[in-house]
């Protein structure tokens, strides 16, 4: 791509934070030219939208985009509908950023990868949690090699809330949050583990735990499992354990990476600190404090580090925009390309089938290999109903049946 990155934002609610970040960048480098959201009232909430065209219809949004040179689409729409809109955008000559998950079915994963390869368009996942201040500090330590051979990693993502918050986040009876199994929202727990350890999932086994407490909000939430935990063999030889989006009463996320010489973890430590641990016989030369809390600091990254600290999700949203610029304008392929995106989606999908079958082990297809893609190209099983409560082919909770 040459010239300015002209972005169309699809999804005003989540997309608003990215609209704000992009608005602070050099408009000759990147700028928003159009925003689309099916809920017109969401468009009215946007600020600083001078010269930005607003739409409630995606096809009209794309048609206008082509007329003004829009060359990138940022998908911040409903969780389970990204693949179909990504494919539409790429087939119209636009690069794509997809927020949270690539596809909700294995068929969608296959269709998406084939579209990227067929069109030659650029595609990336806007998974922001790996780029929080604390996780970037963990990455620096892990890449330094002092932890030795990596053996184990774990990630936990919690997003609890009051009844009113949950109702606000589930505005209609058939909204995706009302039907999403606990394994599906996997990126914030698994994404950081993949990034920190430079690894991919090979196999997954999973279990979910039902919550009687969640029965009290049964009138608008049907996914009444409180937790799902996945267990994976990873491509670098280690094993990893992580959750989806849990319903536990704890609104923080934690990550740990352990090697045979040391370990590092992010947890509920004060002042955004991370914990680094060695034994006396495994510590690097010159290290005498074997269990220490380290302050994660982006100051070493200069002006970009300062800007990151002012943005959402611990700086992660800012780095997503920087990845967009590096990729779309300069060809620097980000870590979370289409193959890593669909690997996360497939892990989530197959982990749910594992939950429904008491922990059965599933192999994750290698979506860079056509032979693997052919094995799941027609697999469109889904727990998500449409707006008329039709189309769901998997239960949203382990209480409802088996796969």
Give an account of the 3D structure.
This protein is α/β, with parallel strands linked by helices. The chain has a domain of 140 residues: NAD(P)-binding Rossmann-like Domain (Rossmann fold, 3-Layer(aba) Sandwich), CATH 3.40.50. 32% of the residues lie in helices and 22% in strands. The protein is built from 12 helices and 15 strands. The strands form 2 sheets. A 9-stranded mixed β-sheet has the order 14-13-12-11-7-10-9-8-15, with helices on one face. Strand 5, helix 5 and strand 6 form a beta-alpha-beta unit. The radius of gyration is 21 Å and the shape is globular. The N and C termini lie far apart (44 Å). The relative contact order is 0.16.
Feature tags:
403 residues; alpha/beta; 9-stranded mixed sheet; 6-stranded parallel sheet
CATH architecture of the domain at 5-128 and 323-338: 3-Layer(aba) Sandwich
Rg over CA atoms: 21 Å
Overall pLDDT = 90
Number of strands: 15
Q: Ranges with pLDDT <50 over ≥5 residues?
A: none
How many separate helices? 12
- Helix-strand sequence: EHEHEHEHEHEHEHHEEEEEEEHHHEH
Q: Structural class of the secondary structure composition?
A: alpha/beta
Largest sheet strand order = 14-13-12-11-7-10-9-8-15
Q: Beta-sheet strand percentage?
A: 15-25%
CATH homology superfamily name of the domain at 5-128 and 323-338? NAD(P)-binding Rossmann-like Domain
Helicity level: 25-40%
